[in-house]
Amino acid sequence: MDLSSTILGLLSWKPLSGYDLKGIISESDLFYWSGNNNQIYKILLELQQAGLVTFEVHEQESLPAKKIYSVTPAGRALLRHALLEAPEAPELHKTFLIQLAWADSLTDDEVLKLLKSYETEIISRLELHRGRALRADQNPKRSPRETYLWRRINDNFIEACQTELEWIGETYRTIQEGSYQ
Questions:
Q1: By the 8 A CB rule, do 18 and 41 touch?
Q2: Which residues, in sequence order, are bridge partners of residue 68?
Q3: For residues 8 and 149, what is the distance between their CA atoms, to the nearest angstrom?
Q4: pLDDT recorded at residue 136
Q5: Residue 117 has pLDDT above 80, yes or no
Q6: What's the pTM value of the predicted model, to 2 decimals?
Q7: How far lies 123's CA from each of 51, 126, 143, in Å?
Q8: Residue 51, CB half-sphere, CA atoms under 13 Å: how many?
């Protein structure tokens, strides 16, 4: 799904401001776009001009007024169409693997140090995902099925980190033992 469809999906959950959308997108590993303000507000304007979202202006004390966007029935129909498209195969971009591919010029100790450093990063990411999974306000919960699907999405991130840690451990042990067969 593209960023426009993702914004429609988020707005189908609940009305949000552009600022709220930016926060959700930038804090999530699920939504992998940078989601900078210019991009988000440009898409919101395009969606509004196409009749896919509407907005209400909410006045704030001591702050500028903000627009709260909601998805329209036409926006929900377009979101539904996007949801029915064939899923794309995942893109796996791991710069560490590129680094490791050319690590033959390093000593075993240097490679082991790289693996330990990478392991630390993955452990940190795993803890982040576990923490996010525990936050009650993080995901929509409009139905038991939606709650289940969001839990499985979080599980996917956690399990990917656990698998990566297993891979690191096996690679580390093999290099440490010198048994490259």
A1: yes
A2: 17, 56
A3: 18
A4: 61
A5: yes
A6: 0.77
A7: 44, 5, 32
A8: 3
pLDDT band of residue 43 (cuts 50, 70, 90) is very high
CATH number, domain 3-83:
1.10.10.10
In the predicted model, is pLDDT for residue 90 greater than 90? no
pLDDT digits (tens, 9 = 90+) for 2-42: 889 999 999 999 999 999 998 888 877 777 665 566 889 99
Task: Please state the three-class secondary structure of the chain as a single string.
Answer: CCHHHHHHHHHHHCCEEHHHHHHHHHCCCCCCCCCCHHHHHHHHHHHHHCCCEEEEEEEECCEEEEEEEEECHHHHHHHHHHHCCCCCCCCCCCHHHHHHHCHHHCCHHHHHHHHHHHHHHHHHHHHHHHHHHHCCCCCCCCCHHHHHHHHHHHHHHHHHHHHHHHHHHHHHHHHHHCCCC
- CA–CA dist 154, 97 (Å, integer): 24
Q: In what order do the strands lie in the sheet with 53-60?
A: 16-17, 63-71, 53-60
Residue range 99-121: mean pLDDT, rounded: 95
